[in-house]
From TrEMBL:
This is Proline--tRNA ligase. Residues 47-491 form the Aminoacyl-transfer RNA synthetases class-II family profile domain. It is found in: Cytoplasm. It comes from Cyanobium gracile UHCC 0281. The keyword Cytoplasm applies.
Length: 596
């Protein structure tokens, strides 16, 4: 391809809407253009990158016997209602684009395809003799992001590879899950990415086990917590750890303490010399559901700990299974209540408050009471007295009130001790999620009645797995991990072109002739090669070549009469070298996409 025909438009300044380096570089280098918030056009250079990523994905999926298919993007709401996910994905801040057609039927644009593929499996897979089966697709998905940002990292439409496997038993599911784990590691390695596998929360997809693959980068939205010995790594949403030991509270009886206007743990500890580990943090929250009235939630944490919102949502969902989809959990405010509640002075012995609906009193369910182990393990503690401007010092479980149901709710933090080895302490890194694999179990097959006949001749639900890779996100993650002050530095395997030939002076017929010869030899040899034949100054061409990040640059300049060229390694590993034209071609032989 000749650059003069490439429709290449580069920018010298960072676009105002771009926030992170990879987003800035993809816009500046002419890889994509923004049409609306979270909606981008993939221009020819980026499309070549995405095709190369997709080719690697297809090869590795074929290696684990996955079958490529293409599923509809427009999905009937009925399928999602049967799985119980329609309300959660469309109500409130749900992320599914949805519409009503002219026949008054509700439809959604698929952010994922568990329902669709399970419905197909129910129709097509009827016997254990047909199993296992794994189907995958590479397709555009849609998410109605409230705040699209970071370019392709959090867009409203994106390209994704999603695979779904079906099995006769759990052991077979686990084998495929392990095979996909290996395939994913090979995909990211072949794409030139440094990725780490971490334990993850299954979120709205569900399932018994899941693992994320994170590309480590400072711009990552996710916090990875890992042990130095490499034996444990998890997304912070999922991570577990041992908190620091609490400082014992040396008191024998429970006494009231006047605490005027001391509504926070910091204010309480500063005024009276308590250590935060001696205090109890009590949070009053409101859970809203798709198919049931809202319910109050009382959460107890040790005063120095922070609440993990994902762990709380999972705990509430599991304990309110009949309430439909959990829409949100928000702080419970005074205007939600009929009876006054002393916010800032709450204790675990708070009586169930009545909820307000307009001016009417709501017959609400009792508070769902949960305590993190860090709180439940305290022998004596300082907590609110449920009276304004007063706390209790020396409160004890069993005397003040029963211990609430104990469940892990705290957010693990860098520096916490590891469960597997308390001498190890968690270290933090930022990561970009590029892949996620799940053991779904029978969640969808039971809801959608996808059943098969087993060896004994009886029917049972299929076992399922789900495996996703963000193809477009992976491309931007590669830029985030591979760039320098001059621009992108693509890994060779996914670069849009392997070599760019730059003619220093397009007015010199000797330089032009040698460049054309090299271009033809590389092209006919199957190399992905660009020829910068534009009548621009050499400096402009060099800057553009660095910006767009082609791995190898052949500069045809003053040495053209002696058939000398300059070979530049964009990665910086070997730098610049002056070689004969034939030696340069020989050096490029064997590179991915370059076999002159």
């Amino acid at each position: 391809m000749r650059v003069s025909r490439l429709m290449l438009v580069t920018l010298r300044d960072d676009p105002a809407e771009a926030e992170i380096t990879s987003h800035k570089l993809l816009l500046r280098a002419g890889y994509m253009r923004r049409l609306a918030p979270g909606i981008f056009a993939y221009l020819p250079l980026l499309w070549r990158v995405l095709q190369k990523v997709s080719a690697i994905v297809r090869e590795e999926m074929a290696a684990v016997d996955a079958l490529e298919t293409l599923l509809p993007q427009l999905q009937p709401a009925d399928l999602w209602r049967r799985s119980g996910r329609w309300d959660g994905y469309t109500a409130g801040e749900g992320i599914m684009f949805h519409l009503v057609d002219r026949q008054e039927r509700s439809l959604g644009l698929g952010p994922t395809h568990e329902e669709v593929v399970t419905e197909l499996a129910a129709d097509l897979l009827r016997s254990y003799r047909q199993l296992p089966v794994c189907l995958y697709q590479i397709q555009t998905k849609f998410r109605d992001e409230i705040r699209p940002r970071f370019g392709l990292m959090r867009g409203r439409e994106f390209i994704m590879k999603d695979a779904y496997s079906f099995h006769a038993d759990e052991a077979c599911l686990r084998r495929t899950y392990a095979a996909m784990d290996g395939a994913y590691r090979r995909i990211f390695e072949r794409c030139g990415l440094r990725a780490v596998a971490v334990e993850a929360d299954s979120g709205a997809i569900g399932g018994s086990a899941s693992q994320e693959f994170m590309v480590t980068a400072e711009a990552g939205e996710d916090l990875i917590l890992a042990s130095p010995d490499g034996r444990y790594a998890a997304n912070q949403e999922r991570a577990v750890s041992l908190p620091a030991a609490a400082v014992p509270l040396e008191v024998s009886t429970c006494q009231p303490l006047a605490t005027p206007a001391q509504t926070s743990i910091d204010e309480l500890c500063t005024a009276h010399g308590f250590d935060p580990t001696q205090t109890l943090k009590v949070l009053l929250l409101l859970a809203r559901f798709a198919a049931a009235p809202p319910r109050g939630v009382l959460v107890c944490l040790r005063g120095d700990q922070q609440l993990n919102d994902v762990k709380l949502a999972n705990a509430v969902t599991a304990r309110c299974a009949d309430a439909g989809a959990l829409l949100e959990i928000v702080p419970l405010l005074a205007d939600h209540l009929w009876d006054a509640v002393p916010f800032g002075f709450l204790g675990p012995h708070l009586e169930d408050p009545a909820l307000r609906q307009g001016e009417a009193r709501v017959a609400a369910a009792p508070l769902l009471r949960l305590a993190d182990p860090s709180a439940a393990d305290l022998e004596a503690f300082v907590c609110g007295a449920n009276r304004s401007d007063e706390h209790l010092v020396g409160a004890r479980w069993g005397e003040l009130c029963p211990v609430p149901e104990v469940v892990d709710l705290r957010a693990a933090q860098p520096g916490d001790r590891c469960l597997h080895d308390p001498s190890q302490r968690l270290e933090a890194a930022r990561g970009i999620e590029v892949g996620h694999i799940f053991q779904l179990g029978r969640k969808y097959s039971e809801a959608l009645e996808a059943r098969f006949t087993n060896e004994a001749g009886s029917e049972e639900p299929l076992w399922m797995g789900c495996y996703g890779i963000g193809v477009s996100r992976l491309a931007q993650a590669a830029v985030e991990q591979h760039h320098d002050a001059d621009g992108i530095r693509w890994p060779v395997a996914i670069a849009p072109y392997t070599v760019i030939i730059v003619i220093a002076s397009s007015q010199d017929p000797v330089q032009v002739a040698l460049a054309e010869e090299l271009y033809e030899r590389l092209r006919l040899g199957g190399c992905d090669v660009l020829l910068d034949d534009r009548p621009e100054r050499a400096g402009v061409k060099f800057k553009d070549a660095d910006l767009i990040g082609i791995p190898w640059r052949l500069v045809v300049g003053r040495g053209a009469g002696e058939r000398k060229v300059e070979l530049v390694d964009r990665s910086g590993d070997t730098g610049k070298r002056e070689l004969s034209a034939d030696a340069a071609l020989e050096h490029l032989r064997g590179l991915p996409g370059a076999s002159p």
